[in-house]
């Protein structure tokens, strides 16, 4: 029986070396689109660790529907048993907004030489210039951009220039330097979104086969996405 647990990140300074993937998101709820992307990146980029980092209070988005505790529990259950998948709840433990640049600075302080790979979807990458201190991100980590349907890499503007200066198609570059490269990688497209899942569950339909069974059980039992009755006055 495997003794590896996915829910606790390896201790700082523990024996894991090689690039750490950092997969942030609201995970409201986590689904197979997230998990398949993370898994394919682990395999393709030879990442010994993919750290799921649920956002606490994302600056650009509405508050989450499920509580921090439930989202964290769903991420833990979803990633359990997959070697290399770990969960880090540091952003949820912060009271204010959690900016990627601050999270990466914390990780960099804990892992001074280890390559860090921040995973972003192409849609998020295209919005990068609106991120807090976005130009500092590459001094702290690599960016790994996972394609989603309908998105093309920018060839002009600040992101186009950044790609010319920092882009690479060589996996080895992500292992050699601790930060500073942009790697674009196509992943299997699963047309699942958390927004659609919440609507589906709210409409009383069953999310079976769109997420791990353990996640489905938690969200159905908690009723966190069930349609709320509007109180009549
Ligand atoms: P929502 O619909 O609420 O916006 P989401 O699933 O797109 O939810 P997050 O949970 O914040 O949003 O996503 C975390 C990361 O996972 C983002 O980088 C996003 O681009 C990526 N992602 C989301 N859905 C998929 C999918 N089906 N396939 C691949 N990547 C995905």
Bound molecules: adenosine-5'-triphosphate
Largest sheet: 7 strands, parallel
Shape: globular
CATH topology: Rossmann fold
- Give the strand content: 5-15%
Number of DSSP helical runs = 10
Return the CATH architecture.
Answer: 3-Layer(aba) Sandwich
Low-confidence stretches: 1-7
- Report helical residue fraction: 25-40%
Rg is 18 Å
Into how many domains do the coordinates divide?
A: 1
β-strand number = 7
Compact description:
With 233 residues, the chain is α/β, with parallel strands linked by helices.
Protein model, in words:
It is a single chain. The chain is of the alpha/beta class and 233 residues long. The protein has one domain: Rossmann fold (3-Layer(aba) Sandwich), CATH 3.40.50.620. It contains ten helices and seven strands. A seven-stranded parallel sheet has the order 3-2-1-4-5-7-6, sandwiched between helices. The longest helix has 14 residues, at 32-45. The radius of gyration is 18 Å and the shape is globular. The termini are far apart. Residues 1-7 have low confidence and may be disordered. Adenosine-5'-triphosphate binds next to helix 1, strand 4, helix 5 and helix 9.
Short descriptors:
seven-stranded parallel sheet; binds adenosine-5'-triphosphate; 14% strand; disordered N terminus; globular; 233 residues; Rossmann fold; alpha/beta; 10 helices
List strands and helices in order, with pairings.
Elements: E1 20-25, H1 32-45, E2 49-54, H2 68-79, E3 85-87, H3 90-93, H4 100-110, E4 116-121, H5 122-126, H6 137-140, E5 142-146, H7 157-166, E6 167-168, H8 171-176, E7 182-185, H9 194-202, H10 213-222
The protein binds adenosine-5'-triphosphate.
């Amino acid at each position: 029986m495997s003794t590896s647990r996915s829910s606790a990140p390896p201790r700082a300074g523990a024996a894991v070396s090689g690039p750490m993937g950092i997969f942030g998101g609201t995970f409201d709820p986590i689904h197979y689109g997230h998990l398949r992307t993370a898994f394919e990146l682990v395999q393709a980029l030879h990442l010994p660790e993919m750290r799921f980092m649920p956002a606490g209070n994302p600056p650009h988005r509405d508050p989450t529907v499920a509580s921090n505790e439930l989202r964290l529990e769903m991420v833990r259950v979803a990633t359990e048993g997959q070697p290399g998948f770990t969960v880090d709840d540091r952003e949820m433990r912060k009271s204010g907004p959690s900016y990627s640049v601050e999270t990466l600075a914390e990780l960099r302080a804990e892992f001074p030489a280890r390559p860090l790979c921040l995973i972003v979807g192409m849609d998020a990458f295209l919005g990068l210039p609106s991120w807090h201190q976005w130009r500092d991100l590459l001094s702290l980590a690599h960016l790994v951009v996972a394609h989603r349907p309908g998105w093309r890499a920018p060839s002009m503007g600040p992101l186009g220039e950044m790609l010319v200066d920092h882009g690479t198609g060589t996996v080895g570059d992500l292992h050699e330097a601790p930060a500073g490269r942009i790697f674009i990688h196509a992943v299997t497209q699963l047309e699942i979104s958390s927004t659609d899942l919440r609507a589906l569950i709210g409409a009383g339909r069953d999310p079976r086969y769109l997420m791990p069974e353990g996640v489905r059980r938690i969200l159905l039992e908690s009723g966190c996405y069930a349609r709320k009755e509007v109180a009549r006055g």
